[in-house]
Amino acid sequence: MVNKIGVFSMLENKTIVVGVTGGIAAYKAAEIVSRLKKMGADVYCVMTEGAQAFLTPLTLRTLSGNPVITSMFQEPVKWNVEHIALADYADIFLIAPATANIIGKIANGIADDFLTTTIMATKAKVVFAPAMNVNMYNNPVFQENVSKLKKLGYYFIEPVEGNLACGYAGKGKMAEPENIVQYLSKFEKDDLKGVNILITAGPTREPIDPVRYITNRSTGKMGYALARCAQQRGANVTLISGPTNLDKPQNIEFIQVQTAREMFNEVTKHLEKQNVIIKSAAVADYRPQNYNNYKIKKTDEDLQINLERNPDILGYLGKNKGNRILVGFAAETNDLKENAQKKVNKKNLDFIVANDVTQKGAGFGCDTNKVTLFYADGSQKDLPLLSKNEVANLILDEVSMLLKRSD
Ligand code: PMT
């Protein structure tokens, strides 16, 4: 089965339990269930009491074609100890929408209704799609719960920014059903199983003195999305990251660096075993020529800092490519096509992911990106504005195709 952007569904015959909790986004659960069914999944829904205030079980029963569980003590419809059976039976457990309450309960081991007991009992991959008020989302208690669950191996589909039902605007709107279903379908894809992929992410920091440095606006979101998605598709991922505020993706080898020279050293150290390298990091091309051991004091004079070239990591990789697949990124503000195509050829890349960082929703910091892929043979592929996760998966689709061709 093929979805809208041409990706094969891996959800056929998978059992997906959809837990629906009490938020206005509950109505979107109906579309998620309908899409999952269309992808060939066997879907079972569990609704909390709160969810039933927003959506009727009948809607989900009709769409899923299966009984909906609404209470811990209702007559079992299919299994003996129902919450254990459903927990065992699930390939994926999706909670959409996931309120701050359900996330808080699971993070703190509370199992006081059917949904929480089943989540606690399952060994399936559990994916939360949070939806809530922006201030609740940013609340440090909530964020700590999310961090804790991520460390424990739970997955999160980030909410997006937008106008919220509560009247606020900001991050907290549940990801669109289409994107949630796409995430799950990639989740079960294992086309990169056993492939060694090295990804660089984030900015580098080039110190001037103990308190100052030169850096850029990269947050690491694009590179971390690549690392997460590659890992979910079965790759052995090494992520070499400059300083960011992001949580380390789970189940990958993570290497922290600060400067371009450190990144160069780690990349070359880990190069040998890699099949694929994706360089999404925003590496500083220059560093201060001299590092001052003490804080530079201000005077009445102007100050000049001489800069010297940093190693061109991608250039080095191109020269030592072997039969690896090498993917670069290009952050451009003008002449995107010309500049990107030049880099593909000069650096001996299979393709480059070019983003015009002046465009709204593209490049640094945001949760979305709009990129064009330029290939060594001069062809190009324009992608629409998508979440960084979706962009990451489409880049990995290209990598997967190139790997198949080189088999
Ligand atoms: O991190 P985010 O906030 O999510 O933002 C994402 C992003 C904008 C950083 C990302 O999409 C992106 O464009 N990354 C590449 C940024 C960049 O440094 O582009 P560039 O055109 O200057 O460099 C071209 C390529 O050479 C890149 O693959 C870069 O990693 C590499 N490079 C650059 C300099 C250098 N000394 N060594 C390198 O390897």
In short:
The chain is an alpha/beta fold.
Structure commentary:
This protein is of the alpha/beta class and 407 residues long. The chain has 2 domains: 15-187, Rossmann fold; 196-286 and 307-406, CoaB-like (Rossmann fold, 3-Layer(aba) Sandwich). The protein is built from 14 helices and 22 strands. Strand 17, helix 13 (336-346) and strand 18 form a beta-alpha-beta unit. The protein starts with 14 loop residues before the first strand and ends with a helix. Ligand PMT binds next to helix 10, helix 12 and strand 17. Ligand PMT is lined by residues 202, 218-222, 260, 279-283, 285, 310, 312-314, 328-331, 343, 355, 357, 363-365.
The CATH class of the largest domain is Alpha Beta
Radius of gyration (Å): 23 Å
Give the CA-based shape: globular
Unreliable residue stretches: 1-8
Order of strands, widest sheet: 13-12-9-14-17-18-20-21
Give the CATH H-level superfamily of the largest domain.
CoaB-like
Strand content: 15-25%
Average predicted local confidence, pLDDT = 92
Look at the helices and sheets and give the structural class: alpha/beta
- Total DSSP E strands: 22
Give the termini distance in whole angstroms. 24 Å
